[in-house]
Structures are given as structure tokens and as C-alpha cells.
Amino acid sequence: MTIDDDRLRPLLDRAEIHDVLMRYCRGVDRADVELIRSVYHLDSVDDHGYWTGPGPDFAEFIVGRLTANALRTTHAVANELIELDGDTARVETYVFAYLWRATGDGGSAEALDVFAGRYVDLFARRDGQWRIASRTVVHDWSCTPQVLPPGFGLPLDTFAQGTRDRSDHSYGLLGTSGAAQVPPSARAR
């Protein structure tokens, strides 16, 4: 049984777009400016509400803002709706962002901000690479719940601890790209 290119190409396109979204989240959480820049076309526009401008410039801005204001971050994407149209794709992706920060009261108090929204993106494939051409971040809801001490019952200090730079454990395994590679046997011929 063989799979024809017309049926395989949309699956590969969706996988490549998904990888771009994963690289973005990894780049933000690891404070990796270069990785964040790699998800945008040079002429792209990013509208994050509080910041609008060229996509590649957002990388420097968000890393500076988050490293100054958040102790840790986790960006997780969920539902992805991808509508392909040749070399463009309209994409809606649900995002949950968790920002752990000091409260700024001079003590050791910390807060957890939770943001739920969507990335509404126009992707374009240029020179064989899918990247974001336009992004608007849509806010659905957010909250700052009461923070209680960890109660996992596990010695959390025995786990590998995440870092916000390329010394993070994941870089030892995945390297700097963060992109899952499509094995040669799965590439369209």
C-alpha cells in the first residue's frame, strides 16, 4: 500500500506547523531569543496586546520582560485548528501560560498568574519553511489563584531542575533547534 503525495502533504504541513508552535513555547520558557526569532518570517507582525510590532523583534522584548518579571514560565498549547490553503495556513491554537513571579512586596511572597487565550496565526511557507506571518493573541480569561506551598509529597529537589537558558536539561538531548525531525522514511518523495 502506498500513500499518495496529495494525502501525505497536508499531514506533513500540519506537523511542521505544530513544530513551529512547540519551538515558540520552548523558546519563551527557556528565554531563547534565537529560537523565538526562528518561528517568525522577517516581515511578520505580532500583536500581543501590550506589544505590537515585527515578529522577530518580539523575541528580544518578551525574553527581557519575562526574565525581569517572572521567576519561571510555562507555555502549553492545546487545541490546534489548522486550515491549509497551499502555501498559507490559518491557525488557531489554544494557549495556557503560567507565570511564577515575586509579588514585589519586598518579602519572599510569590504569585502564580494564569493566562488562557489563543494564538490566531497566519502561517506562510516560504523557501520550504512554515513560519508565522501574522499573529494576534486573543485573551479569553486569566486569574491569579492563591498560592499554597507545594504538597506533592515528593522530594522535588531530586528532580532535574529547569533553567531559563541553554543549560536546561532539554538542550542536552534536543540541542538548540527544539524541532522534531521528520525521519527520512516519512518524507514525501
TrEMBL record:
Pfam family, one: SnoaL_4
Gene Ontology MF annotations: dioxygenase activity
SnoaL-like domain segment(s): 11-136
Keywords: Dioxygenase, Oxidoreductase
Keyword Oxidoreductase assigned: yes
Tree of life domain: Bacteria
Protein name per UniProt: Aromatic-ring-hydroxylating dioxygenase beta subunit
